[in-house]
Design goal:
312 residues, globular
């Protein structure tokens, strides 16, 4: 793609993010479920319009590759949001601060993921055997998702990055109550607030998640522009989706098995690619079918002991 396409996409992202932050930040409270749902629909609509533009200007293959990467990244990120919810609860982050914290988290995630995506795409083009290795990594990730226990439901512990930050960075003695700020001035010196440490937790946790999701997206396309735009479009809508999922956290009972099935499918596709090429339309159909079946099963036939929740 031309430099103009890259610049135009990034400029559009910044404009929409600024509008989003301006509209939601002025409210001074957490998003309601209805507001969050409308924002989710807006982000999904914008992503699908961008997909239609790719389809029109670069052909059906590019459009389907974007849609496949977007769907995989968006779905894998849903499970990650459950971990963020537990993290915010554990560290007592106020409801009205969560959206802004996720805003800064998304900006950091875009930079980190873009670096990993470009590096991964370049390495795969240069060393074809890495495709098989990444596929095997996804197969292992699928097995981990099906392991006994409830991953992501335990209270998160401070990771090594946050513990190091506590030792190295000057921390605020009396951080302001009820106001969103990552740093304040105390005694003429810049000091960081607990919200900054939570942001570090969000960023480093997202980086860990990226080691599963990025190989999966590489299974959909090797085009840097498609990899980047599909990933960014998926990540952008996660902040609003977070507030929708707070009310649905107990209803998606079959999400983890579906994610495991998708990771296993994409992993097998990458491992077998030197010998068997799976058309992108077939990959998209399989992935979409798995997620549709998981959502319908969760809502219509929840496992014993789970209620599908009230219908609205």
């Amino acid at each position: 793609m031309t430099a103009l396409a890259w610049a135009g996409f990034n400029a559009g992202v910044l404009v929409v993010l600024a509008i989003d932050l301006g509209l939601t930040g002025r409210k001074g409270r957490a998003l309601t479920r209805g507001e969050a749902t409308r924002w989710v629909l807006l982000w999904v609509t914008l992503s699908l319009l961008f997909c239609a533009g790719l389809w029109a200007f670069r052909g059906a293959e590019a459009g389907l590759q974007f849609l496949g990467g977007y769907l995989v990244e968006y779905a894998l990120s849903v499970d990650n949001l459950f971990v963020f919810l537990v993290l915010f609860e554990a560290f007592g982050v106020r409801g009205e601060h969560r959206h802004r914290l996720l805003f800064w988290g998304v900006l950091g995630a875009i930079v980190l993921r873009a670096s990993l995506l470009f590096a991964g795409a370049a390495l795969v083009r240069r060393f074809q055997w890495l495709l098989v290795a990444l596929g095997a990594l996804l197969l292992w990730a699928a097995i981990r998702l099906l392991a006994p226990g409830k991953p992501g439901k335990e209270v998160p512990r401070e990771n090594v990055v946050v513990r190091l930050a506590r030792r190295v960075l000057p921390m605020a003695v009396s951080p302001p109550e009820g106001r969103f700020t990552l740093a304040v001035r105390e005694d003429g010196r810049l000091r960081f607030t607990p919200l900054f440490l939570v942001l570090l937790m969000v960023e480093t946790t997202d980086l860990v998640f990226a080691f599963d999701s990025i190989p999966a997206v590489l299974g959909m396309s090797r085009d840097p522009f498609i990899l980047y735009t599909s990933n960014v479009c998926a990540v952008l809508g996660l902040r609003s989706l977070f507030f929708v999922l707070e009310a649905l956290i107990g209803r998606l009972a079959y999400l983890r098995p579906a994610l495991a099935a998708v990771l296993a499918f994409v992993g097998a596709k990458m491992v077998l690619e030197p010998w068997v090429v799976v058309p992108i339309w077939l990959s998209l159909a399989v992935i979409g079918g798995i997620f549709a079946a998981a959502v319908l099963a969760s809502l219509l036939r929840p496992p014993p002991g789970r209620s599908p929740g009230p219908r609205r």
